[in-house]
Specification:
By secondary structure, the chain is of the alpha/beta class. It has a single domain, classed as Vaccinia Virus protein VP39 (Rossmann fold, 3-Layer(aba) Sandwich), CATH 3.40.50. The chain is built from five helices and nine strands; from the N terminus they run ββαβαβαβαβαβββ. Strand 6 (117-122), helix 5 and strand 7 (144-155) form a beta-alpha-beta unit. It is an enzyme of class 2 (transferase). Its EC number is 2.1.1.171.
């Protein structure tokens, strides 16, 4: 059973795509991740992009905790159906689902948000290649707010993501079989 951990929809159950290859983030990992994000002020009033959203659990957790805008991007039909059902059932404001491949969405005008995304959550399928993940991370660089945070969830056996020059790794946390990497925009050098 997957559920929203805290916030306005705390305790509410989420649909997960039946018979699909999606792997919902465990409640334990979401609770730890969002406790840290809440402490850093990265939930309330923020613009959140959830890539490879699956059922939408990560983005909906952010919405439950007060995110102003959440966009869930997912290409798998069963996962899109589950995410849309979850959005409808929870009735949280400012949440939308985009049924599209992540790469295509990031190349579209819809990916550009005034002020940039404050929080980007990536929970790609474990089989996603490192080169594809690196390309997605590189595409994000120009779409982020100055104080944004990028969160990548992978198998603990996966190598560290290849961070593009515009992102700086902040930390790695391990939760059993899951590793969570965080990075932020590189500070631009100041003119002499």
């Amino acid at each position: 059973m997957t559920r929203i951990v805290a916030g306005a929809a705390g305790g509410r159950r989420l649909q997960v795509p039946a018979g699909s290859a999606t792997r919902p983030t465990s409640d334990r990992v979401r609770e730890a991740l969002f406790s840290a994000l809440d402490s850093a002020g990265l939930c309330s009033g923020t613009r959140v992009l959830d890539l490879y959203a699956g059922s939408g659990a990560l983005g909906l957790e952010a919405a439950s905790r007060g995110a102003a805008r959440v966009v869930l991007v997912e290409a798998a039909r069963a996962a899109v159906t589950a995410a849309r059902g979850n959005v409808r059932e929870l009735g949280l404001p400012g949440v939308s689902v985009v049924a599209e491949k992540v790469e295509r969405f990031l190349a579209s005008p819809a990916a550009v948000v005034g002020g940039g995304w404050d929080l980007v959550l990536l929970d790609p399928p474990y089989p996603l290649g490192e080169d594809e993940l690196a390309a997605v991370l590189a595409r994000l660089v120009g779409l982020l707010a100055p104080d944004a945070l990028v969160v990548v969830e992978r198998s603990a056996r996966s190598p560290e993501p290849t961070w593009p020059s515009g992102l700086v790794r902040e930390r790695r946390r391990g939760y059993g079989e899951t590793a969570v990497w965080t990075a932020g925009p590189a500070e631009e050098p100041t003119a002499p």
